[in-house]
Write a structure and sequence with these properties.
The protein is of the alpha/beta class and 239 residues long. Helices cover 44% and strands 17% of the residues. Bound molecules: NADP nicotinamide-adenine-dinucleotide phosphate.
Length: 239
């Protein structure tokens, strides 16, 4: 299976790439990024091809050619709420929405009608009703919901494409001291309740890859769904 991972330098994208190395069924990975990705020099990493672009809204012909023959794409590109304060809302919307739609259209067209799966990373708490603006980051959340709806519309009006929306909660990880502390705290409280929806980075990547490989179990996957699928996939890998 040939998979395109858009946003290969990101927190989620880089873990997906790492896990692809250990999955024999994944034979080729197109790591789409704005800067080089860190990969080891083992034999397994030969299946990863780093393709750099300047902007996720523009795809030169040589990049479109690399997309051909892909079976799936995992789209992790976004300006997250935490970083959105450093950009105008117009730019946040361009990266989160216009780039996603253009990326999907370009990758879809490169397949020439072959069956194709597209997994889009959204977030837990995205309002179902786009007319009801949440109190916190209302414009941002409505824009993310509109993006989800535009993707579903694309899937409804085009043949041979399946689209799934993953809505993780906080992605816990240990990439910095602060993140490791938060991950430990949430791990502890998860024994009692998952009051703040959260999913481990490796669980999330495992869940996404499992769905890409074996088929989508729904149009939208909640944080609970992702935790369950991810834990099962990691257990299967260990046994
Ligand atoms: N992390 C979480 O706790 C969390 C929770 C819920 C949902 N999610 C969702 O999961 C997805 C992936 O999240 P993540 O944590 O992996 O995000 P991330 O590490 O911030 O970055 C994701 C990707 O987006 C690209 N990107 C960021 N800003 C950009 C810009 N201004 N222009 C073009 N590309 C830009 C990054 O490219 P560069 O490396 O080149 O900047 C990176 O490849 C997002 O949709 C996010 O909303 C994340």
């Amino acid at each position: 299976m040939k998979i395109i991972v858009a946003g290969a330098t990101g927190l989620v994208g880089s873990e997906i790439i790492r896990q692809c190395l250990d999955i024999d069924a994944v034979t080729e990975v197109i790591a789409l990024a704005r800067s080089p990705i860190q990969i080891d020099r083992s034999n397994k990493s030969l299946k990863i091809k780093c393709v750099m672009i300047e902007d996720y809204e523009y795809y030169p012909d040589h990049v479109k050619a690399v997309f051909a023959g892909a079976d799936a794409c995992i789209w992790t590109v976004a300006i997250t709420p935490f970083r959105s304060g450093s950009f105008s809302f117009e730019e946040v919307k361009r990266v989160c929405q216009s780039c996603t739609l253009t990326g999907l259209q370009t990758i879809y067209e490169a397949q020439g009608g072959r069956a194709f799966r597209f997994m889009y990373l959204s977030a837990e708490g995205t309002p179902d009703d786009p007319t009801k603006k949440p109190m916190f980051m209302g414009d941002y959340q409505i824009m993310r919901r509109e993006t989800e709806l535009q993707l579903q519309e694309f899937s409804d009006s085009n043949a041979n494409i399946e689209i799934c929306i993953a809505r993780p909660g906080v992605v816990t990880n240990s990439t910095t001291w602060g993140r490791a502390a938060l991950a430990s705290l949430l791990q502890l409280t998860n024994h009692f309740s998952r009051a703040i929806p959260n999913v481990g980075r490796s669980e999330l990547a495992a869940a996404i890859l499992s769905q890409i490989l074996h088929g989508f179990s729904g149009e939208i996957l909640s944080n609970v769904d992702l935790v369950g699928i991810g834990q099962e996939a990691l257990r299967a890998k260990e046994s």
